[in-house]
Amino acid sequence: MAKAYDALIIGAGVVGNAIARELSRYRLNVGVLEKELDVGMGTSSRNSGVLHSGIHYKPGTMRAKLNVQGNELMKGLCRDLKVKIQYIGKLTVAQDQVDIETLEALKAQGETNGVPGLEIIDVEKMQQIQPGVGGIRALHSPTTGIICPYGLTIALADNARENGVNFHLSSEVTGILKTENGFQVKTAEGGFFETKVLINAAGLYSDAICRMLGLTEYAIYPCRGEYLILDKRLNGSLSVLIYPAPRKGGAGLGIHLTNTVDGNILIGPSNEYVDTADDYACTADIIDQLKKEGQELLPAISTSDFIRGFSGLRPKQTPPSVKGFKEFVIEARKDIPGFINLVGIESPGLTCSPAIALMVRDMVGEKISLEEKGNFVTERNGFPGSFHDLPEEEKADLVARDPDYGEIVCRCEQITKREILDAIENPLGSRTIAGIKYRSRAMMGRCQGGFCMPRIVQILEKDFGYRPEDYRLYSPDSYLFTGHVR
Amino acid sequence: MREMKRDLVIIGGGPAGLSAAAAARQVGCEDILLIERDRILGGILNQCIHDGFGLHRFGEALTGPEYAQRYIDKVNDAGIETLLGTIVLSMDHERKLTVSSRKGYTRIHAGAVVLAMGCRERTAGAISLPGTRPSGIYTAGAAQNFINLQNIMVGRRAVILGSGDIGLIMARRMTLEGAKVEAVFEILPYASGLPRNIQQCLNDYDIPLHLGTSVIEVHGKDRLSGVTVAEINHFQPVPGTERFVPCDTLLLSVGLIPENELSAGASVKMASGTSGAFVDDTFMTSIPGVFSCGNVLHVHDLVDHVSDEAALAGEFACRYLDGGIYRTDTPIAIEPKTGVRYVLPQQVSGKSDFTLSLRVTEPSRDRAVWVRDGDRKVARKKLVRLHPAEMIRIKVKKEKLETAGKLEVSVQ
Amino acid sequence: MKRKELTCIVCPNGCPLEIDFEEKPAIQITQIEGHTCDKGPKWAEQELTRPMRTIAGNILVKNGDFPLVSVRTDAPIPKNSIFQVMKEIQSTTVKAPVSIGETLIKNPAGTDCSIVATRHVTPA
After folding, report:
1. A1–B contact, CB cutoff 8 A
2. Are B218 and B137 in contact (CB under 8 A)?
3. pLDDT at residue A251 above 60?
4. Is there a contact between C7 and B55 if contact means CB atoms under 8 Å apart?
5. A33, A49, B351, C64 - which has most CB atoms within 10 Å?
6. Are B176 and B236 in the same domain?
7. Which CATH architecture has domain A1-85+147-219+321-383?
């Protein structure tokens, strides 16, 4: 028996989920197929979390337009979904006259793109914004921001779910058939779906989806960026993002330091093409280079400040021999009516996601009439936001009403049992340790789960009946335990 | 929010906190509150089911839980109040604590505080272990918790990185529970754990120990499939020595870090070399009335020493409440010199005898540890065996300190 | 004449012992160096002729506030019976309550010791 949809989205990343949420405003049957055990397990969660202002893109291009629009839309979206966002601003720093000319060109380009508030500032103003920053001039872009990328991806999915979108996790698309009225889609797990409109938001695997429909003109070349995460001890060292003015043929990784909304600092990303779209390894050479360049940018960093490394893959359309960027592909295929194809949504994809969702909605609207629902739930209900950030008196009140808020499970990040339970009992039904981590932020602190993971394991056992062989880190075969000892 | 005033608050109900509480009561402190985040007292000892604890203190080789019970009984028999399942969220420099439990938030204004929070394990992330991100990588202590307290087995074929005692103990535990331990790898040219543990945890079970070797890469997409190891020279892998060791479990025993988040939050002055607070011979930190002891002060090798140290801290905390702590304007600084990694305390008043604790930088035999004031000998201890893994303690008499300006401690 | 290097495990000092010994007609230590107390040579002799160990483990508990009760041998056992003793520990189940010090298994694998509990386990 096929599950029938009006619109079926392949890929529950930030773009797919933004589209899902947007479409859920209308009287449509919407489904999302996601091959992993949870949403956002690809590029969406593994990046700097930066909301770009839009100064770097050529006027008139899709990226320029979507970036500026997306940046503006994020404000309201994050407010509604209770996702952490900070318009922290950015300094693009000039070291010499050539750089200053670059800054002036960037400013002009940004203004053409509609980026507000751009200003070239002098050393005095630079020092006011970021004491100790080097350079002779800087372009200040106040609309550059930081966001929690996995927080947004999950929040979009939760809200879409609340508005009736069906998420099919562990559903890897293996075949697509174009039919008279739409598409038939089958999955590796034996699932069978029918849909009028099919939306390819499969990120790193968007080329594979294209090939299932006979489109061979797209290829994705995964390009890995490694990061190091710094301890919160350094929180406050940077009050703004600092990038060097772009130069031709620069040496080193050209990496930068980025604050996270939770008070960590990221060093990275590096840039290295890899062979497969799941090669998330971190490499010794890059780690060393990140440490070296990071310490040059911020001398206060000591060896004990590195708490973890991770990597993300950019879904590049340009091969290693070519490098550079190709424009986003966001198209309603005329040769395959009903197929909306998104390919190569790398940076600034996160920033663009709300704007991409509107663009895709319009494409869907050409195929199916869009009638707004009366009861669209705009705000993410049942989610109080970050408990940790609440004022103490409010926290004390919540604890008085719900003792689970008084029981701290993750000591480093001060995450409570209630937040762990909410993460476990998430609307999508995803049950992995990584999923609990991304939803609650437990295990993300200095001890990396040393204290809290045994407690989380115990909660799953006592409150959810887990046996040792039931636990998964992130994938079906990533078992944690082999059984009971006795 | 509930507010209360308490005389002595002890943060941590492990061996240090328990000993401090018992000792404080013994010298007459009436109002004591011991706060513990777990639902039981005993701290890390609860999962250390092997023996070897208490040889100095009790003349017996007790297991961890048995040692803990001795002190739990002392605390319970003395009627000392304990708050279980309670965590201290913050402490300020005026000894105001905010604590959280299922019962709610409470603000406690303490007359004196003893910091006894213990330590945490260094992680794979902290050593930037290269490679993929499969399941199956645990710190040794976390694995010990799963096996001994939760009846959960972590894997079947293990490699252990780090020859510290916890790694050696877990090599034996995994083997006794039916797992195959392929080897223990240690990056330094010498083992960090006690030789008796090498004997009865590795040699007894024919588990090889490879010194000067480390894990340089982790493999496996979903679950660990193996590690690449290589010989290490000057902290760099030696090309050509790499080999793949298949395994499904990697246990990390790569160091313990005193858990001083609370101390940092209160701006307690930290010492260099211990990752713990800067203290004097009363175990008082830079904040008047705040004392520190046990693993949160400096990582110990024997729980017996933790108990000794904590008892003193508890007594001094009690004395502080009675107004009897002497803080001189001209303390005698103590500095580690040749061959010494750190000393504790880092300064003394000179008005009483004290025990100096220290660790050496490298293994050696038949040496002496000298405590000098300029050229003058203040104390000296001859030792057959010196090892970074073993804390050395030297009693220093107050008569020797009378004219001291600064003390330097070295190995000769 | 044979030489062996062993670390004494009687106390945390872990004295490195250098032992010269004859194997025939029976094991006899001719010279020993490295010990700092008289327990060392006694232990060395035992270790060469009939090495003994104490071991710790866990026994499954039914209806307790802990799933396992930690246990130990209350006297040293021959090193070569460790795994047989572990087998008995592994195949035993007890019911809460358990008191610290309580004997849970007598003479496991025919050895001259008891397996005793090292913690309290109260009914859940």
Report:
1. no
2. yes
3. no
4. no
5. A33
6. yes
7. 3-Layer(bba) Sandwich (3.50)
Multiple choice CATH, A221-316, 3.30.9.10, 3.10.20.310, 3.40.50.10800, 3.90.70.10: 3.30.9.10
Question: Which domains occur in chain C, in start order?
Answer: 2-49 (no CATH), 56-117 (3.10.530)
| Same domain, residue pair B260 and B250 | no
Residue of B350, B345, B279, B284 whose CA lies nearest to B319: B284
b/e burial code for range A212-239 (CB count within 10 A of at least 16 → b)? bbebeebbbbbbbbbbbbbbbbbeeebe
Q: Tell me whether B141 touches chain A (CB under 8 Å).
A: yes
Q: Hey, what amino acid is at C96?
A: A
The total number of structural domains in chain B stands at 3
User: Which residue of A399, A468, A482 is in closest CB contact with B104?
Assistant: A399
- Out of B310, B327, B344, a domain closes at B327
Question: What subunits make at least 3 CB pairs under 8 angstroms with A?
Answer: B, C
CB-CB under 8 Å, B61 with C60 = no
* Per-residue pLDDT reduced to its tens digit, A99-134: 999 999 999 999 999 999 999 999 999 999 998 888
B87, B141, B150 ranked by CB distance to A458: nearest: B150
Amino acid, res. A194: E
In the predicted model, is pLDDT for residue B213 greater than 80? yes
B222 closest CB neighbour out of A395, A403, A475: A475
Phi then psi for A215, rounded to 5 degrees? -90, 115
Q: Which residue of A lies nearest to B265 if distances are taken between CA atoms?
A: A233
Q: What average pLDDT score do residues B76-89 get?
A: 97
Residue A95 reports pLDDT greater than 60: yes
> What is the average pLDDT score of chain B?
95
Question: What was the pLDDT predicted at A248?
Answer: 72
Confidence band (pLDDT; 50, 70, 90) for B404? Answer: confident
Domain that holds residue B307: 1-120+256-327
Chain C residues in contact with B148 (beta carbon < 8 A): 58, 68, 70
Q: Strands C68-73 and B290-292: what pairing?
A: unpaired
Residue B76, domain CATH = 3.50.50.60
Q: Say if residue B333 is in the same domain as residue B323.
A: no
> DSSP code of B199?
I
Sequence length of chain C is 124
* Chain A neighbors of C58, CB-CB under 8 A: 485-486
Contact C9 B196 (CB under 8 A): yes
Same domain, B261 and B114: yes
With a cut of 0.90, is the ipTM above it?
A: yes
Query: Quick check: A486 contacting C, CB < 8 Å?
Result: yes
Would you give the end-to-end CA distance of chain A in angstroms?
44
CATH number reported for the structural domain that contains residue B335 in this entry? 2.60.40
**CB distance from A485 to chain C under 8 Å?**
yes
Question: Among B254, B286, B318, which residue terminates a domain?
Answer: B254
Question: Are B283 and B392 in a shared domain?
Answer: no
pLDDT at residue A1, as a whole number: 59
Same domain, B323 and B336: no
Six-digit token string for B260: 């001083």
Which segments of chain C have a pLDDT < 70? 12
CA distances from B78 to B32, C49, C122 (A): 11, 48, 22
Q: How far is C45 from chain B (nearest CA, A)?
A: 16
Whether A276 contacts chain B with CB within 8 A: no
The mean per-residue pLDDT over the stretch B17-26 comes to: 98
Q: Using a CB-CB distance cutoff of 8 angstroms, which residues of chain C are in contact with residue B176?
A: 55, 57, 82-83, 86
Nearest to A472 by CA among C88, B123, B222: B222
C67:B151 CB<8 A: yes
Do residues B142 and B221 share a domain?
yes
Nearest to C100 among B64, B66, B384 (CB): B66
Quick one: pLDDT at residue C25? 86
The residue length of chain A stands at 486
Please give the positions of A annotated as active site.
Answer: 52
What pLDDT was estimated at residue A254? 65
- A422-435 pLDDT, tens digit per residue, is 999 999 999 999 99
Per-residue pLDDT of B119-153, as tens digits, reads: 999 999 999 999 999 999 999 999 999 999 999 99
Same domain flag for B341 and B291: no
